[in-house]
Amino acid sequence: MIYLNYAALCPTHPEAEREVEGTLAEFKQYLYSDAGIQWYLQKSQHCREKVAKLLNVQDPSTIAFVPNASTANSLVLSSLVWNPGDAIVTSTHENPSIIRELRALAQRGVQTHTVKPTSASEFVTAIDRLTATQKVKAIVLSHVSHVDGRVFPLQEVARIAREKEILFIIDGAQAVGHIPVDVSRLEFDIYFFTGHKWCRGPLGTGALVVHDHFLQLNPMFGLQAAEQGHPRASQFEIGTHNIGLIAGLAKACEVKHEEGLGTERLEHLKAEVNGALDERGDVRILKWDGPHAPGILTFQGPPSLDHHEMVTTLSSQWNIVVKPFWDYPEGETPAIRLSWSPATKEQDIRFVLEKIGDFLGRK
């Protein structure tokens, strides 16, 4: 199989897999005895510290472990007090699970306004206008678009959010482990990510970072945690967690921090894909005038192309896995996303491009 869908799911790093197994085997000796509880708390703290190093989080106690990005988003939104007339601003490039959660708030009278990211400057301008005319309580935005890898202008959006006392919630699922993420240089309220994508952590893992600004606006969170002697973000950790999976995520983050992101290799592969597709007159690469992450490229074929047939043919005849977009985002479908890892072989990329070219040539 030639796998070009790393933006959806990366294979778990072998060291992370071993960490899961070893941690569970060690914990089995203690379980929830007094010694086991102490062991669990200490292990959790060490895991927070490893994640903190990758993201440059100054205070590891502001990190909470969650099963995935969608759960993190749901926990954060459900923790807020919503009133009829409140609004949320987001983009048309958000993951469908995030959009569904936002729209579910409509039953409580909350409106969701989606902005199409046509260009970086127009995107910021549109958000500025919306926040000036609507009762916006929160902006929910990806760091990196899962659709085509464009990197959103977080600092400009954060400035708008801070000036107007709006919560800024960032989905880093396509960013962490893919591009450099230094949360100490970002203004946000909540930053969350999932472990099973670019971090190469186990399925069922993720984390969120709570900024002091959020705790100031919601003081009961930090206060209750402090009174109970738990980490400041611990109220987002509901119930007993799988310490093995948490340790696996922490190990994956540690490996990323030590080995690097492989950015140069990702850029090299992207240049090859971009060059091969860009020289064709019948292909449109989805992009804007802002920066893009190096491991993702999405394209549209000519109007006559049956994208569904192409994806099916690539899979059935050549065992090539890519990501299709059929019905969203509006105006940019159908489209096909290719995403790769630093370990992806150049001959595999060339083979896929050859088969795509053959298919296009027949149309």
**What structural category do the secondary elements indicate?**
alpha/beta
Number of helices: 12
For the record, the CATH architecture of the largest domain stands as 3-Layer(aba) Sandwich
* Main CATH class of the largest domain: Alpha Beta
SS strand fraction: 15-25%
What string gives the helices and strands in order? EHHEHEHEHEHEEEHHHHEEHEEEH
CATH homologous superfamily (4th level) name of the largest domain: Type I PLP-dependent aspartate aminotransferase-like (Major domain)
Low-confidence stretches: none
Which sequence of strands runs across the widest sheet?
A: 2-8-7-6-5-3-4
What is this structure, in a nutshell?
The chain is an alpha/beta fold.
